[in-house]
Structures are given as C-alpha cells and as structure tokens.
Design goal:
The protein has helices spanning 2-7, 14-27, 30-34, 42-70, 78-106, 119-136, 138-197, 203-231, 240-250, 270-289, 328-339, and strands at 256-261, 295-302, 307-314, 343-348, 354-361. It has 362 residues and is an alpha+beta fold.
C-alpha cells in the first residue's frame, strides 16, 4: 500500500506543470542556441524554442487545471489518477508534431534533437511524468491531506456546536415545562389552601394570609410566565422586541440597561430571532457575573452594508483577552454565530469596559 501511495494520486498544480515541462523541453535545445553567434541573432531562436515548448506544455497544464476544477469522479483513487496522467500525456505527445514542425521551420539545426514518436517514448515519458509528479507535488499532497483533516475537524466542531445549542434549548424547554406545569400548579394549590384557612384565625393572620396569596398569585401569573417566555421565547406570539423588554425587566434590579432595537428585527425568521436573543442573554449574564458591570447599552440596527449589527457594551472593569478561559457561555455565543453565519468582534482591556459586536446577514 505504501508503494502504491508513492505512485499517487497527487494534486495537479497547472502553473508548476507548465513551468517544469516548458523548462525541460527548452533545456534540450540549449546546444542549438549555443551553436549560434552570441548577441541579437539568438533572440529568434530563443523565441521559437519557447513557443514550441509552450504549445504542448500549455495544453498539458490546461488539461490539469480542468481536471482539478471540473472532474466529476473521485480524485483519491490511484486508477483514476493513472488514467488522468495517461490522458494528459496523450495530449502532450499529440501536440509534439506541431512543435516539431515549428522548430524545423525556424530552427533547422534542431532536427537532430527532436525525438521520434513511438510507444517507447510514450512509456518513458509517462513514467517520467509520474516520477516528476511524485517529486514535485508530494508536499502539496501532504498539505492537501492536512487541509482535508482540518476540514473534517471543522465540520465536527460545527456539528458539536449545533448539538450544544440543541442541548441547551432542550434543557430550557424542560425547565420551562417544569415551571409551567409543576411549579405553577403547586403554587395554585398552596394559594387555595391558604384561602381555605382564612377566617379561622385573627384579623392580623388573615391579612398576612391575604398578602401571601396575592404574592403567590403574582408569582404564578406574572413572574413565572415571564420566566417561561425568557427560557423558551415564542416569537410567533411575542416578537423579539417584547422578549428583550422582558429580559430588560429581569435585570432591572442588577443592571442599568439601555436598549435600542430596529423594529425590522421582528420580521426575521424565528430561528434568527432566537439566536439574537440567546447571544444577548448570554452577554448580559457575562456582564453581570464576570464584569461585574453596572450599566449595559444594547443596540440592534442595520448598517450601511445591509447587515444587522448587534452591539452590547458595558462599563465593567474589562479583561485581558489573552488570559481569558473560554466557558460554556462563550461556546453558546460562538455556536449561534456559526448557525446564523455571523461574525463577532470583542474590544476590551483592563479598566476600559467590554464591547461585543456581531454582524449578521439579513
């Protein structure tokens, strides 16, 4: 297997092929040039030999380029590779008579150096071509193999990032369902039991029970409902702007939030709105936990390139990015950026706050 691997396949480099074949062909006729007097008289001979060399070499290089770009079969098979090199060699040798005619017309003294076309020449030139490709294209194949492995790793990373997003959303749905079904029903039962206890104690106790019931009802009908909407936003019933305002109220006690949103974001797809919401949510959490920040400014608007620009800036102490360890929150942000084909930029340094910007195609 290793011996066969040495034979091929190798990627074709049209430029390198053209330069090598032209140089090799040209070098055979150097004695003809040297036999002429030095000076301007050699220029037509140089030009004639170069053109004669460039015709078959150029056809070979063009064929290699077309194969690299448009082949519909696998480029990893040795048999396909041997057939490709054989086909290119046939093209090269087919055009040699044109070069021969050109040389005989303009450089008659080159007749003795022109090789006759026969099966032996074909086999020899084919073997030489295979050896030349192995010698000159080996490093390219190694680079190509590494790039292929890198592509596989990138694809795996993208799949893993999507799995991370799906797992995160699944966990949120489970938590939301638990809050909606279990916690709300438990709060309702507790409120009903408290109502049943009213009138059986002192006035002060009844008043305390009434306040507790009101608090439970407020928690059940408002707080939990809002939390469920944040955990699993429904962008068909409540648009992105509404969900962001809920998020803003959730952080109102801890952060001073300033929000500016282009109304057109509500016309984006549900997946795009969810991605923007999750990125914003994670940035706010980072600002609160890792900052800690006191003021956060959020802006979502279209830029001059008709992209959606999200900017989240806080007044926290800032960080040195070179020393920051990436966590799950950063992985979630990067995953959503990948899903939405977005690009991000972070500007921060110790004592200068933290600014996160992302561009998304509309």
């Amino acid at each position: 297997m290793r011996v066969l691997r040495l034979i091929g396949p190798y990627p074709f480099n049209p430029r390198l092929i053209f330069i090598f074949l032209t140089s090799f062909y040209f070098s055979r006729f150097i004695p003809v040039v040297l036999s002429e007097p030095p000076g301007v008289a050699r220029a037509p001979i140089y030009l004639s030999i170069f053109i004669a060399a460039a015709i078959p070499s150029g056809a070979y290089a063009i064929g290699a380029y077309l194969l690299e770009r448009y082949r519909s079969w696998s480029s990893d098979g040795l048999l396909h590779y041997l057939l490709e090199v054989t086909g290119l060699q046939v093209i090269f040798l087919t055009l040699l008579p044109f070069s021969k005619h050109l040389l005989q017309r303009f450089v008659p003294s080159s007749q003795d150096l022109i090789l006759p076309l026969n099966p032996l020449l074909f086999l020899t030139s084919l073997s030489f071509a295979l050896f030349s490709f192995a010698l000159s294209h080996g490093s390219e194949r190694r680079i190509s193999d590494r790039l292929h492995k890198a592509d596989k790793l990138v694809q795996k990373l993208e799949m893993d990032s999507r799995k991370l997003v799906l797992s995160d959303e699944a966990l949120r749905r489970q938590t939301s369902q638990f809050l909606h079904d279990k916690v709300q029903s438990e709060l309702m039962v507790i409120a009903m039991e408290l109502k049943g206890a009213q009138g059986q104690a002192s006035i002060e106790s009844d008043a305390a029970i009434s306040r507790a019931i009101d608090r439970l009802e407020s928690t059940r009908t408002i707080d939990i409902r809002n939390l469920v909407q944040i955990l699993t936003p429904n962008f068909e019933d409540a648009k992105l702007t509404s969900s962001i305002h809920l998020l803003q109220r959730q952080y109102a006690d801890s952060l001073s939030l300033s929000v500016s949103i282009d109304p057109e974001v509500d016309s984006m797809t549900e997946n795009q709105q969810l991605g923007l919401f999750r990125i914003m949510e994670q940035c706010l959490l980072n600002a609160l936990v890792h900052g800690p920040a006191k003021k956060v400014t959020i802006s979502i608007a279209k830029n001059s390139q008709r992209e959606l620009l999200m900017s989240i800036e806080d007044d926290g102490p800032g960080v040195n990015l070179s020393g920051v360890k990436l966590g799950v929150g950063t992985a979630v942000i990067d995953s959503w950026l990948n899903i939405l084909n977005g690009k991000s930029e972070i500007i921060t340094s110790p004592g200068r706050g933290y600014r996160f910007t992302a561009h998304f195609p509309i």
